[in-house]
């Protein structure tokens, strides 16, 4: 575990993880792991962040992503949103504090929050495309992803993006490949001011508490930790100067939770739907068994012939053919 | 025709409007009634196959226990990719059906009575029911339910089509679309079950969509008003070779 | 930097003014966050823009660019008026008590001795009263009206908070808040660090900006102490090395001077560099100048430099002008007086002011040699790139040679950081394509020239023919060979002067440090201040021991810090007159009764007794200067002057435009604009996503900040009808650029002298080569005038106009 991300530390074997550590696997079940990994967390101290985008750069480099060279649209945010190639993004907000009338330039590193209760995973229909490790990392397994975009709807933070190139979902992996070999995330490693630190969730909470104390001493009475309970807490947390108003930080949800619509879709609709379809089919079978088929009778045919023969313009029938059956 | 009664039931007035263009009487040793033209049947079956494929591919992504169905389509990626395109086919195809069928599916006075006597319908006690035209209220329900649900499905389906359209909508909108899509899908599958069951249960129905015709008795029994209209106003072909009915 | 990056974590107050450390020095800025997080340090940012540094500051105050002197003199006045002065420090370690000659005055914005025609001063009166003993006369009671302290008080008396607001546009209460926070650092147990960069240097009075803060820091007792200092954040990874190694037209390595043409022989040259102490017992370290100079000459010409030929003094070029700085070089090209140009690791087409003039000048060259790892705009100055480089290629006859060189990651050698650390690094990969190391290229040129001189002769081939070239492979000098030369070695066996039987350094061995250098030709050293970097202990620059006893931030075993591995300059001043640390919690060095010991390498002789030897060993006074005598061309005290292009007149001296002694070429006078025509105050700067014009060649950086933009306030955008994210055109007499508009609350109009001043911010990273979108830059608009002392161009304050536009035709 490493708050001190620089210089590099020796690999921490206790952090190594693999499929045996899954606690959740999308659209499938996993056996209870034999061990519980120490929960980890990335802590983003917004009050220390200078918006240098080193994290963005490190993310692009480590994950070998090639984002497009865009244009300027009048803000510092580049690219302008998360994309399949941009897992993390600095979002800049110019906010005038109504209490002090002072401008504050709020800079938040956006990206996957690694929810303890991951909406993406719950929405995912593809077995094993999204997994959660017992240390809290929520990871996308590209090989199993079908590109349906259900994770996009499931996510309370609007994070996953679907690639138009390979039709798979992408988001921050918390550098699961680095964690697996005992290294912290690339963004934390690159952060020059230690605004991004990584370690056990407990350590990060303790570190955050110190930071909050410091911020309160500087007049930020509402400084606090963003670890929203609505999604069971997150494994990416923020220290905010104004923790009472998360949404001023470029729309960070005030009280995120998996949308009731998604709950309905992946919950009651799913089960009730199957049930209703089953009942409909069963009712048919039952009805058939009870009442038998609805058959046309000889009389019906007779009546039809009579009616049609009597109709205007009917040709005379051949009497020899009169009787049927 | 004047209002009269027959077997204690009112004989409805019929007009030329109660029949479709392709409907035709073949009067010979047996009465055979052309119910669906070749193109209507082709149209129907394209729609039907699309719907079945959509149901299978949709169900594959609807519940993990059905994910194995993706194997039918070449895996999850293919299932995800094909499903919306089949949806487009279904929509266009169904639009054809809609244009063909919607006129005689418009509600009529007798439909309410028919529906009110659903118990008799299920018992097969058709003598107690009012005479109906080319479509009874049940069929009309299936028709309109399909029409409405397919509209819901195509709109919500396009909305959540990642490849082309999702980026134009917000995530909350997509969530609504997703819920609408899945609920509509459940509903349309139920409607489809009713439709298919009814076709099996009512003997002689299926041939309307295979060979295009029904027996005169079938028409008399189930769609007497339609038969009356045909007999009065419909095209007919009395030169059909005797003794060689369509079944021969 | 007087201190080091790592020392910033020891501070109580960081003042970022004239820089934007978080933006331009994000890695170094980590020490600010460390100080904040671990010491509860506060951060003040004073800047025309609410910058990335401001975003993490405890207090931000706006200021109009080019008015820092007024602000800082206002703070000094506040400190003096409120008795927020570290008196013990001021009395003991500054020249406050020195008596200044009769005749020195300051009036109407000018000091004594101004000559308007020459745009220069006769600085004769800018000096101390010298007593009969040959030393400066002092009044330690500070009663004498002509003592430095009283002259200073008088000089700054006009810079009241009201005047500061009038000049700087800083609201009075914000100025007072900053002044109050700063003044608290006058106690011995509180220190402030000043972090500045090109926001102070790139002005026509840049040196005086820095002087102003240096004076404030002296008054607060913050020089030489942990967490204090004047910390220049250098704009390039190795720009500190560039100045150290003397890559200025008037310098040779180690801040020695190129002789002037009046100094016809060595004796004349050295006579004005004696630096006799001005107070008793003082070190006056420049007394050793001859040792460093002769050792340099021996490193250059080896056995050809002898006492008989004045150590090859004649081989050195002699200056006929104060300097051939870059502005003069381009002026000479434009005047047809310079026809060849070697451009090594430089991109003048985008770096130097008045791009139109640069293009014109380059077009008049016969040849241009560009040595660069990247495809620079300068190498392509003749290529038409539509609006982004609108030249008529056919009319340009300059022959351009491009010599691809290695990039830093392909080199071995040392970079010198802002904190004077020489950090050795190793190549991460081999040279790509046809690229060659700069040293290889220079060696080829030298050897070819030498061959030509040998074959064809010449007027004075000796400096070339006799150049000491001792490298194992003459065609490819290696980094460690050059580093050893810079460190210096014994040409002859050195013996202890007190005991000639004792050999101190064998002939041919590396000297341990500059103290071993001699002026008799027995030693050679390429750059005396680097001496010790590669000595008998090996390559000290390659050391990577990050141990830090008692967490002082010194890291003495990490790399090598010049001079003599000293981490904080003037560290004697960290202790009081008796040699005890001012702040017991922040000991640096202390007097233990016999010698100086502590966490850093003392910068006075280790046995120099307290109360006898002053800490400022480079000054003949032994003390620091609140009054700089004639050392600076534009005055012994800083005074407020407006930029050459200013939205308001100089309220202190309305008749004066710009810095009265800054050099202005006749041909450029016409290109200056006024506020009538160009009402908006522009400034240029860097963004954190890019490094100058390099990283636009890097895909990732291009992604992070893809396109040229200018920043304006919401008010100016409304006034001119410019939309956020829309195109706008910015222009003045020198040029015109089109850019995307970033309309922001971070720039606010300032009220200066009663009228609103709008600021236009112009970042500088775009050109017409590389991965990023094509763009222009501020140097199309900046004036061709520099600092009065060192000619750093005035990039930070100029006038423009702005209007909405439809964007470049070839976007």
Structural commentary:
The complex is a heterotrimer of chains A (325), B (248) and C (811). With 325 residues, chain A is α+β, with helices and mostly antiparallel strands. Chain A has helices at residues 54-62, 119-123, 150-154, 176-179, 186-190, 201-217, 260-266, 268-291, 298-310, and strands at 22-25, 40-45, 89-96, 103-110, 130-133, 138-140, 161-162, 169-170, 196-200, 224-226, 236-240. Chain A folds into two domains: 13-259, Alpha-Beta Plaits, CATH 3.30.70; 269-312, no CATH class. A four-stranded mixed β-sheet of chain A has the order 9-2-11-10. Chain A is elongated. By secondary structure, chain B is an alpha+beta fold. Chain B contains nine helices and six strands. Chain B has helices at 38-62, 76-101, 109-116, 118-123, 137-159, 171-201, 206-210, 216-222, 224-233; strands spanning 4-6, 9-11, 24-27, 31-34, 213-215, 235-237. In chain B, helix 2 packs across helix 5 (137-159). Among the domains of chain C are: 5-235, Dimethylsulfoxide Reductase, domain 2, CATH 3.40.228.10; 438-475, no CATH class; 666-804, Barwin-like endoglucanases, CATH 2.40.40. Helix content of chain C is 22%, strand content 16%. A six-stranded mixed β-sheet of chain C has the order 27-29-28-33-26-32. In chain C, a hairpin with a 4-residue loop joins strand 28 and strand 29. The mean pLDDT of chain C is 96. The interface between A and C is large, with 42 and 47 residues.
Q: Could you give a short description of this structure?
A:
The complex is a heterotrimer of chains A (325), B (248) and C (811). Chain A is 27% helix and 15% strand. Chain A has 325 residues and is α+β, with helices and mostly antiparallel strands.
């Amino acid at each position: 575990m490493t708050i001190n991300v620089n210089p590099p530390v020796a690999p921490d074997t206790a952090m190594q993880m693999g499929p045996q550590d899954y606690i959740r696997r999308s659209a499938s079940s996993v056996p209870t792991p034999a061990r519980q990994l120490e929960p980890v967390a990335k802590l983003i101290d917004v009050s220390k962040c200078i918006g240098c985008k080193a994290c963005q750069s490190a993310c692009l480099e480590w994950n070998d992503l090639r984002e497009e060279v865009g244009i300027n649209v009048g803000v510092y945010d580049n690219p302008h949103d998360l994309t399949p190639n941009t897992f993390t993004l600095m979002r800049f907000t110019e906010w005038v504090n109504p209490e002090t009338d002072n401008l504050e330039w709020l800079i938040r590193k956006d990206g996957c929050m690694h929810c303890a209760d991951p909406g993406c995973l719950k929405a995912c229909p593809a077995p094993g495309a999204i997994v959660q490790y017992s240390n809290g990392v929520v990871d996308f397994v590209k090989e199993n992803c079908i590109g349906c975009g259900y994770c996009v709807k499931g996510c309370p933070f609007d994070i996953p993006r679907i690639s138009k190139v390979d039709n798979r979902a992408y988001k921050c992996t918390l550098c699961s490949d680095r964690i697996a070999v005992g290294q912290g995330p690339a963004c934390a490693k690159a952060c020059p001011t230690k605004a991004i630190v990584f370690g056990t969730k407990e350590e990060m909470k303790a570190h955050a508490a110190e930071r909050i104390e410091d911020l309160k001493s500087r007049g930020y009475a509402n400084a606090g930790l963003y670890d929203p309970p609505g999604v069971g807490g997150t494994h990416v947390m923020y220290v905010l100067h104004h923790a009472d108003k998360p949404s001023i930080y470029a729309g960070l949800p005030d009280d995120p939770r998996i949308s009731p619509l998604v709950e309905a879709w992946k919950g009651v609709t799913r089960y009730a739907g199957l049930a209703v379809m089953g009942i409909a089919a069963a009712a048919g079978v039952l009805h058939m068994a009870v009442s038998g088929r609805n058959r046309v009778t000889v009389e019906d045919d007779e009546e039809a012939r009579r009616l049609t023969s009597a109709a205007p313009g009917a040709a005379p029938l051949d009497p020899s053919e009169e009787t049927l059956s | 025709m004047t209002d009269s009664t027959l077997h204690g039931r009112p004989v409805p007035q019929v007009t030329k409007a109660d029949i479709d263009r392709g409907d035709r009487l073949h009067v010979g040793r047996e009465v055979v009634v052309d119910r669906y033209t070749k193109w209507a049947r082709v149209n129907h079956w394209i729609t039907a196959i699309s719907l079945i494929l959509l149901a299978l591919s949709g169900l594959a992504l609807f519940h993990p226990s059905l994910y194995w169905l993706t194997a039918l389509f070449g895996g999850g990626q293919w299932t995800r990719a094909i499903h919306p395109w089949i949806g487009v086919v279904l929509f266009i195809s169904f639009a054809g059906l809609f244009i063909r069928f919607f006129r005689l599916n418009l509600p009529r006075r007798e439909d309410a009575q028919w529906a009110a006597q659903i118990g008799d319908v299920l018992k097969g006690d058709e003598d107690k029911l009012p005479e109906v035209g080319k479509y009874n209220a049940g069929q009309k329900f299936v028709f309109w339910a399909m029409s409405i649900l397919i509209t819901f499905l195509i709109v919500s389906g396009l909305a959540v089509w990642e490849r082309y359209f999702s980026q134009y909508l917000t995530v909350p909108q997509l969530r609504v679309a997703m819920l609408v899509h899945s609920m509509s899908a459940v509903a349309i599958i139920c409607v489809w079950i009713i439709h298919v069951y009814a076709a099996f249960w009512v003997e002689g129905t299926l041939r309307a969509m295979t060979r295009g015709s029904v027996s005169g008795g079938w028409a008399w029994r189930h769609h007497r008003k339609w038969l009356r209209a045909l007999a009065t106003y419909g095209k007919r072909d009395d030169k059909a070779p005797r003794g060689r009915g369509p079944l021969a | 930097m007087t201190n080091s990056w790592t020392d910033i974590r020891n501070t109580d107050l960081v003042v970022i003014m004239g820089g934007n450390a978080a933006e331009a020095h994000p890695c170094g800025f980590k020490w600010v966050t460390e100080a904040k997080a671990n010491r509860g340090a506060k951060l003040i940012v004073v800047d025309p823009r609410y910058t990335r540094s401001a975003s993490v500051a405890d207090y931000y105050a706006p200021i109009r660019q080019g008015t820092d002197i007024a602000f800082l003199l206002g703070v000094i006045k506040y400190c003096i008026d409120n008795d927020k002065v570290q008196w013990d420090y001021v009395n003991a370690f500054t020249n406050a008590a020195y008596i200044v000659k009769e005749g020195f005055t300051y009036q109407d914005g000018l000091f004594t001795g101004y000559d308007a025609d020459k745009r220069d001063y006769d600085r004769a009166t800018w000096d101390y009263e010298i007593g009969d003993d040959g030393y400066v006369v002092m009044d330690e009671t500070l009663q004498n009206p002509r003592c430095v302290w009283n002259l200073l008080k008088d000089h700054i008396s006009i810079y009241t908070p009201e005047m500061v607001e009038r000049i700087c546009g800083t609201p009075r209460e914000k100025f007072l808040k900053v002044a109050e926070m700063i003044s608290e650092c006058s106690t011995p147990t509180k220190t402030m660090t000043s972090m500045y960069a090109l926001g102070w240097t790139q002005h026509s009075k840049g040196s005086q900006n820095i002087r102003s803060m240096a004076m404030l820091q002296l008054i607060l007792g913050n020089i030489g102490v942990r967490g204090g200092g004047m910390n220049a954040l250098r704009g390039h990874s190795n720009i500190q090395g560039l100045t150290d190694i003397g890559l200025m037209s008037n310098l040779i390595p180690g801040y020695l001077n190129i002789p002037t043409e009046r100094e016809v022989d060595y004796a004349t040259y050295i006579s004005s560099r004696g630096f006799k102490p001005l107070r008793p017992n003082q070190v006056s370290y420049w007394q050793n100048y001859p040792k460093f100079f002769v050792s340099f000459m021996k490193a250059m010409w080896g056995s050809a430099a002898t006492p008989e030929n004045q150590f090859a003094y004649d081989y050195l070029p002699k200056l006929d002008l104060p300097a051939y700085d870059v502005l003069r070089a381009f002026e000479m090209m434009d005047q047809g007086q310079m026809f060849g140009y070697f451009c090594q690791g430089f991109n003048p087409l985008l770096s130097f002011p008045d791009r139109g003039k640069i293009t014109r000048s380059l077009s008049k060259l016969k040849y241009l040699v560009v040595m660069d790892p990247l495809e620079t705009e300068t190498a392509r100055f003749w290529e038409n790139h539509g609006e982004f480089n609108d030249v008529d290629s056919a009319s340009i006859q300059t022959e351009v040679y491009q010599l691809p060189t290695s990039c830093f990651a392909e080199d071995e050698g040392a970079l010198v950081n802002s904190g004077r650390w020489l950090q050795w690094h190793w190549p991460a990969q081999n040279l790509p394509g046809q690229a060659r190391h700069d040293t290889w290229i220079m060696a080829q040129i030298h050897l070819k020239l030498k061959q030509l001189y040998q074959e064809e002769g010449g007027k004075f081939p000796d400096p070339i023919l006799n150049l000491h070239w001792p490298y194992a492979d003459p065609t490819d000098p290696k980094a460690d060979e050059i580093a050893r030369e810079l460190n210096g070695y014994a040409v002859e066996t050195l013996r202890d002067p007190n005991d000639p039987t004792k050999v101190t350094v064998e002939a041919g061995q590396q000297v341990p440090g500059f103290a071993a250098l001699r002026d008799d030709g027995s030693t050679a050293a390429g750059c005396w201040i680097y001496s010790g970097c590669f000595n008998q202990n090996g390559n000290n620059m390659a050391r990577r021991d990050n141990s830090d006893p008692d967490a002082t931030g010194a890291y003495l075993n990490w790399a090598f810090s010049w001079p003599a591995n000293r981490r904080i300059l003037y560290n004697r001043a960290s202790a009081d007159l008796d040699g005890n640390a001012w702040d017991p919690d922040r000991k640096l060095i202390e007097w233990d009764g016999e010698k100086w010991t502590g966490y850093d390498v003392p910068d006075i002789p280790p046995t120099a007794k307290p109360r006898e030897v002053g800490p400022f060993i480079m000054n003949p006074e032994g003390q620091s200067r609140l009054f700089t005598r004639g050392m600076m061309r534009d005055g012994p005290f800083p005074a407020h002057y407006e930029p050459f292009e200013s939205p308001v007149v100089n309220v202190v001296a309305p008749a004066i435009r710009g810095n009265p002694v800054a050099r202005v070429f006749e041909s450029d006078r016409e290109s200056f604009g006024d506020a009538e025509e160009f009402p908006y105050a522009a400034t240029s700067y860097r963004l954190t996503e890019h490094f100058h014009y390099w990283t636009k060649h890097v895909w990732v950086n291009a992604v992070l900040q893809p396109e040229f933009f200018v920043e304006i306030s919401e008010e100016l955008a409304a006034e001119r009808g410019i939309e956020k994210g829309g195109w706008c055109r910015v222009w003045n007499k020198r040029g015109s650029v089109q850019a995307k508009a970033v309309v922001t609350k971070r720039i606010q109009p300032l009220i200066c002298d009663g009228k609103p001043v709008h600021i236009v911010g112009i970042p500088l990273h775009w050109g017409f080569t590389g991965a990023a979108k094509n763009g222009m830059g501020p140097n199309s608009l900046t004036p061709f005038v520099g600092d009065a002392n060192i000619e750093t161009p005035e990039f930070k304050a100029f006038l423009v106009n702005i209007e909405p536009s439809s964007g470049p035709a070839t976007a």
